[in-house]
Amino acid sequence: MARQLKLAKTRVILFDESGHIVDKGTKVSARAAGDWFKQLVDQLNISVVFFGIPHFEKVLDSNEQLRYRCGAVMRFNPYGWSALDEQRQFAACVITYAKFFEKGGIRFTFDLEPLIRNCYLLSGGLVGIVNEFMVRLAKDLDRNKGQEISFEQCAITAKKIQIAVASEHVPFAEANVPSVKLQAVHSAVLDEAHVRHRKTH
Known about the structure:
This protein is mainly α. The chain contains nine helices and four strands; from the N terminus they run H-E-H-E-H-H-H-E-H-H-E-H-H. The protein has a two-stranded parallel sheet with strand order 1-2. It has a two-stranded parallel ribbon with strand order 3-4. The chain is elongated. The N and C termini lie far apart (50 Å). The model has no long low-confidence stretch (mean pLDDT 88).
């Protein structure tokens, strides 16, 4: 592999889903994996970018030599509902999708607030899942302009995608989803990703 990378004059390698290296049941220890990455960086004189933090941090924690060669860990956690600025940023994402529909002559027949809250309920703050929902919603609609999207249609579409985490809280079952339910789903998403919860005041 090293020879091929040198022949290709590779300067940067991106490792996606790198957290799987330290999943339960893997045969390579976290420290051994760290040694391998350290050799890769040193021998080939290339930059390596790891995606899959924070689970991958086990490799950094177990191998100080690799850790000292790394830049600072950057965290891109799902939007948190309890932080007002992140709540607004998540809402802006959902509103952007609604505007895309409007440009195509399709409008939601209910207020944006229930749409935002229910999108958060199905995603736990993960915008990728909101995207999956919106794409599926567009596919479920006829292509005729002037069409409307009802709350009931959103409920049907929500059942067709993989939501963030299994929960007793069903998306689009109620318009005014309490914040406590949204925070519970967000916590479950963080737990599943092994992310330490931030303290909120």
